[in-house]
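Researcher: Good morning. I'm working through a list of sequences from a screen, and I'd like to move beyond sequence-only analysis. For each chain I'm collecting a predicted structure so we can compare shapes side by side. This is the next one on the list. No need for commentary yet; just the structure.
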Amino acid sequence: MRKSHPVRRVVLATAATVSAVVLLLSLKPSSDPGGAQAAGAVPQQTAAAQESPQGGAAAAGRSTVTGDAAQTQYGPVQVRLTVSGGKITKAEAVQAPSGGTSSQKTELAVPRLNQSTVTRGSADIDSVSGATYTSTGYKQSLQSAIDKMKAARGSDAGASQGSGDSGSGAAQAKTVTGAAAQTQYGPVQVRITVSGGKITKAEAVQAPSGGTSSQKTQLAVPRLNQSTVTRGSADIDSVSGATYTSTGYKQSLQSALDQAGG
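Model: Good morning. Structure tokens for this chain:
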């Protein structure tokens, strides 16, 4: 009997050790720090994935475009637009008449014109009373900026469609400048934009200026531009009181049409 006591002690010790190991293994998964870190990694990656696209979209959605300077009797007017999400969010005049009463009229008119541009989102804004020349020049430059904005938007859309459509996108809108026509009071030169076989814009890049010539130009050119877009040809009526300017305009317009193939 005394020889069997050591064996029982060994058996009992072994059983106690096995029980302790089983108990430790059953407790280990709930306290594993590696498992806790893995569970927290997914929300962190998801948050990062949400922030990155939003930041890129904000940077790509805003652009600035500056219209051509419009010459007036009291100096040039030039408008710059900030566009975000396809809408005008800011308008400002980077050039405007200054000196004497011109500065006073500019300070009166430009803030109102800027606000109207943002509110209406187009060049269809009212002139400011007492600042007719500045208002007219502002709207001309504003329209130029809007045209550039639309052209850039169309160019981006064409590029995104791939190289197969790039040729048709480039042919969709074309700008052509006619030869300068010499008149008794100075040269007249017309530039037109053609899209889909139609004239979508007409403007005089040169016109008589100085003295009464500037007044006649301010009177005649906007009407001639509008008539050109409306009729889509050089068969437009002369403006009464601006015969030389009208004649030169039509000559340069016909030159531009010939180059455009229309």
